[in-house]
Amino acid sequence: MTVSTPEASPEPGKYVAGEAMCPHRLVLEHVTSRWGVLVLMELLDRPHRFSELRRAIGRVSEKMLTQTLQTLERDGLVHRDAQPVIPPRVDYSLTDLGREAARQVRDLALWTERRMADVQRAREAYDEARKA
Predict the structure, then answer these.
(1) Rounded average pLDDT over 30-46
(2) Largest Cα–Cα distance of the chain, in whole Å?
(3) Which secondary structure element, helix H or strand E, spans residue 48, and what is its range?
(4) Which residues pair with 93 in a beta bridge?
(5) Of 2-6, 112-116, 121-125, which range is least confident?
(6) I need a labelling partner for 44 at 20 to 30 A (CA). Which of 24, 34, 73, 106 fits?
(7) What is the pLDDT at residue 12?
(8) Side-chain-facing half-sphere of 4: CA atoms under 13 Å
(9) How far apart are CA 28 and CA 125, in angstroms?
(10) Dihedral of CA 118/119/120/121: which sign?
(11) Which whole number is the average pLDDT over 14-36?
(12) Quick one: CA torsion of 123, 124, 126, 131, rounded to 10 degrees?
């Protein structure tokens, strides 16, 4: 069995096409997924229990939130702290790596808020051009 190593990028910040980049792309998918973004941003403020995290995010199924948390935990971004008490208490928080990723995601989210009017104008111009 041959193990491939990620190819060196010709320029910093550029992605190299091909199978070697799959692990990087998977992490990017996890961090930027619909629920991954919301989980990371919510946990940036403070640790949450599962139920309060679900309420804070809204409209996420229990199953999807569980899968998202497990994926982010596996990637080393989220820490799961299960307390051996009755009823069971589980808190979720960000690791140092997770805080770093969450700040990046938050900055992107803030950018979209600031630039939404420009995006809307571009969409309208695009749609208008397609009608002609």
Answers:
(1) 97
(2) 66
(3) strand 48-49
(4) 79
(5) 2-6
(6) 24
(7) 61
(8) 9
(9) 30
(10) positive
(11) 81
(12) 140
The upper half-sphere exposure of residue 96, i.e. CA atoms within 13 Å in the direction of its Cβ, equals 0
Q: Where does the chain have alpha helices with state H?
A: 22-32, 34-45, 50-57, 62-74, 96-131
Q: What is the pLDDT of residues 62-113, one digit of tens each?
A: 999 999 999 999 999 999 999 999 988 999 999 999 999 999 999 999 999 9
Determine the Cα–Cα distance for residues 14 and 48; give it in Å rounded to an integer.
35
- C-alpha dihedral sign at 53, 59, 65, 69: negative
pLDDT value for 3: 38
For the whole model, what pTM was predicted?
0.81
User: Is pLDDT at 18 greater than 80 in this prediction?
Assistant: no
Residue pair 97/76 in contact (Cβ under 8 Å)? The answer is yes
SS3 state at 51: helix
Q: To which residue do tokens 């990371």 refer?
A: 40
Other beta carbons within 10 angstroms of residue 40's beta carbon come to 27
